[in-house]
């Protein structure tokens, strides 16, 4: 059960309250997608989900990009029997703050999505066959940026005939994409809600992303990223997922949940290397549980995309992109966050509002650290509702 | 130079101010050392250094156990030409707070010391030859606890004819040993100064120690700890040292020092996997620089010893050992510490003083996080002096 708490994101909405009707994964393709780095992906196939109905004016659409280890399943269920609903189901649905009676919500799988082997994810990345070689791209796949993710969403926007998003909102890496939308395409959205995220990756975040990713390259099965005909670097990937899981929670929660309990009664970690603490075995299990549906190279690409992030991708300044943001901004954060600390979020907001752009701050209270941006988002529900409805 | 800042601990004392005279590494041996886990090490050989002179009454001795990646070189230089002095040289010496004109300072290498291949370290651990097999112990070496480290120091104390320490003081893992002395042998010391450390390893610390250590086991050269006739798991060990280095500093310092600089001018990490950020390459270099003199199995043993730590090692309570402390306590800490956070230190002090034991708190100000317990210890110098002199 504790493992479930660790790895299941959206337990808060009971089955009866989940967004209805049942959700379907859709798919779109962008031909000859050119990255901001100047490389071309001949066929960019990606998944998306929608909740609610696009109105005739096509001005009621809200975009939700997803977090690092997430995908476009933001609300609802695929089947009645699904144990849990999408990760932000608590705020998306009929009568909920992101009210699907009013809004048409679009949630999109990113390129290089971690869940390359998840049947509910459609993505294009190193694990995808390169049409030129007939083999998986591996590390020859173009390095992607948060800006590239946003540009794929712009491609979908055009296919759907939407000229402007009513709002863009997302958590963590989804928040980075939200900043990027507002900084790069300020006339393509009405407002933006970056959640548990800040305006650029600082040295500390760059270094931790590297710490997360490094075990993959240490795993001999990684083989320079060329493992698709052999054993995948699952041990390294599990370790990467484990570190991410630990850092995405708070020390308070880790201590409160596990204390100094041993993994097995009577099996003292002081007596044998075969014994361990419960917190370690549960984190190991949480990491290992994600491996089968995930791809190690995709993890490396995601880590790099996050390291590269500066809102708007200006070449010469951390601030220019943020100053380019002119739409109203709501920043949702928590001070217990070890990945995007409250200070970094407040600092970002201070820059944005320095030229008069309205910025609202909403602080989440909780014990889960970064994860509260997913688990406790309902706390900000009425603030989000009002922000979306404001003229 | 930045690499030097990362890996060199004691830059603060200029050469002219270092403890004098030149320091010598000494050695002692404990025959048939029995661990608290009930196993026997036939020959426990360890190094130590002393500063100052033991008086006739043998009541002026101060013990300094060392931190995780440190050794007994706490003050002075081995040769005039040494670039830096011992790590706490700023407070140890003639006229300094730990005044070697008054006190006889003893600093001891722990068993399973990380620097098994450092010519200035004398230690016994998995890299040592097991007299029974004629081969290195490897992972058959007994699991060690902080209590075992303290018991080796008690062995030295007896050899030196010292009945009671005037004080025990140490940083980080040296602070854990200090708590352990006071909790387990309350009649063997007059006062105690645990620095940047708390009274037990909580789940969060247990998990992070595991994250530090895990890359070693992922390195195929680790081979279950049996690598002494082949290639050592240096890549895994370097990664372990790198993560420790990052977490021992503060986000503020990491950001301020490296920002988003690239490792090489013109080598954009967005363009090639061969390129990286400076913070990453500098941390990699800092980790790699420690590898040649360190042993990977020793790292694993140190991590486990820290995970196992509860002051006094009571079986049934986190508090009993701390309540056993009856001598005056000075706790030195910083709120920027990511390894032993200020809250954990204050919580420890609250328990100790709950039964009337005097506890003084000294907060360090700095930008280096945990490292300030080494780098900024001089800030607490006059408080330490007064605490040592109090009747």
Automatic annotation (TrEMBL), chains A, B:
The keyword Aminoacyl-tRNA synthetase does not apply. PANTHER family: HOMOSERINE O-ACETYLTRANSFERASE. Pfam families: Abhydrolase_1. Belongs to the AB hydrolase superfamily. MetX family. The keyword NAD does not apply. Its EC number is 2.3.1.-. Residues 138-348 form the AB hydrolase-1 domain. It comes from Rhizobium johnstonii (strain DSM 114642 / LMG 32736 / 3841) (Rhizobium leguminosarum bv. viciae). The gene is metX. One of its GO terms (molecular function) is homoserine O-acetyltransferase activity. It is found in: Cytoplasm. This is Probable acyltransferase. Its main location: cytoplasm. Homodimer. It comes from the Bacteria. Keywords: Acyltransferase, Amino-acid biosynthesis, Cytoplasm, Plasmid, Signal, Transferase. The active site is at 172 (nucleophile), 337, 370. GO terms for biological process: homoserine metabolic process; methionine biosynthetic process. One of its GO terms (cellular component) is cytoplasm.
């Amino acid at each position: 059960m504790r493992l479930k708490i660790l790895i299941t994101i959206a337990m808060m909405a009971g089955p009866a309250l989940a967004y209805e009707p049942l959700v379907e994964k859709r798919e779109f393709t962008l031909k000859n997608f050119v990255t901001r780095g100047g490389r071309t992906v001949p066929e960019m196939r990606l998944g998306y989900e929608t909740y609610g109905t696009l109105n005739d004016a096509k001005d009621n659409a809200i975009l939700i990009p997803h977090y690092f280890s997430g995908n476009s399943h933001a609300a609802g269920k695929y089947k009645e029997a699904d144990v849990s609903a999408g990760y932000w189901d608590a705020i998306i649905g009929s009568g909920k703050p992101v009210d699907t009676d009013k809004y048409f919500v679009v949630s999109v799988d990113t390129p290089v999505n971690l869940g390359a082997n998840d049947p509910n994810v459609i993505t294009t990345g190193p694990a995808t066959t390169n049409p030129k070689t007939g083999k998986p791209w591996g590390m020859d796949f173009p390095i992607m940026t948060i800006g590239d993710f946003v540009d794929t969403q712009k491609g979908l926007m055009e296919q759907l005939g939407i000229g402007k998003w009513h709002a863009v909102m997302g958590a963590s890496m989804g928040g980075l994409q939200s900043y990027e939308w507002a900084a790069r395409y300020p006339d393509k959205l009405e407002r933006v809600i970056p959640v548990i995220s800040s305006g650029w990756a600082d040295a500390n975040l760059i270094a931790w992303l590297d710490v997360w990713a490094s075990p993959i390259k240490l795993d001999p099965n990684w083989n320079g990223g060329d493992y698709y005909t052999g054993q995948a670097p699952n041990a390294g990937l599990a370790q990467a997922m484990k570190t991410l899981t630990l850092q995405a929670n708070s020390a308070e929660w880790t201590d409160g949940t596990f204390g100094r309990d041993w993994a097995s009664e009577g099996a003292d970690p002081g007596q044998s290397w075969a014994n361990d603490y419960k917190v370690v075995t549960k984190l190991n299990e949480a990491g290992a549980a994600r491996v089968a549906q995930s791809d190690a190279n995709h993890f490396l690409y995601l880590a790099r995309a996050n390291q590269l992030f500066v809102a708007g991708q200006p070449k010469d300044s951390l601030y220019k992109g943020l100053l380019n943001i002119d739409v109203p901004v709501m920043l949702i954060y928590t001070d217990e966050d070890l990945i995007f600390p409250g200070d970094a979020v407040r600092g970002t907001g201070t820059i944005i509002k320095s030229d008069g752009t309205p910025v609202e701050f909403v602080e989440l209270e909780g014990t889960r650290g970064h994860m509260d941006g997913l688990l406790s988002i309902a706390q900000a529900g009425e603030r989000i509702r009002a922000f979306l409805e404001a003229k």
